[in-house]
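Exercise 3.2. Students should predict the tertiary structure of the chain below and write it as structure tokens, then compare their answer with the key that follows.

Predict this chain's 3D structure.
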Amino acid sequence: MSDTAFDDARAKWNARFAGEDFAFGTEPNAWLREHAGALPPGGRVLCVADGEGRNSTWLARQGFAVDAFDLSEVGVAKARRLAAARGVAVNHAVADGDALAWPQAVYDGVVAIFVQYATPAERARLFANMARCLRPGGVLMLLGYTPKQLVYRTGGPGIDSHLYTEALLRGAFAGMAIERLDEFEAELAEGTSHAGMSALIGLVARKR
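Answer key:
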């Protein structure tokens, strides 16, 4: 996925993930950990733009059958190493949201944590594919930054059009049953890339 501000997204993320350290740490996102009980136990879950694998690895350790993808081959290589080190199996793919061969109505859950480098047009396609690949009763879990993050600047793309509002998410997933949609602020400590007070919004929605 690209934007005029992110002309070569793959190169950007390969550079971000190039070091030995994990840019966002190896522990799962705290909001995901708190709300993962909404996912059908033991179900098949897709992790969108999974980066270095912290969230997919954790979900696999909770007993889910996990598929994950990211456009960065460097990130995916680290994700595979992390899963192996934690003794779990995750089916990883190198792809961006437009190139992925999205299966239809097969997932019990889709998890998308901070997938905000897509342009509005790319985001619309990504969100539509995320909804379509869920089976009826499947759960979408999405976390992102709100426009107030432009004040904090502790992570994220720093472009207003890429940030989430309640109205945007309600419109994008109007065909789903929204079980929770919360704006909140929290102190993030996720590696060196997400550190400090952040303006967030979390969505849990179920496919009808």
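Discussion points: The beta strands are 44-48, 65-70, 90-94, 107-113, 134-145, 176-190, 194-207. The chain is about 30% helix and 30% strand.
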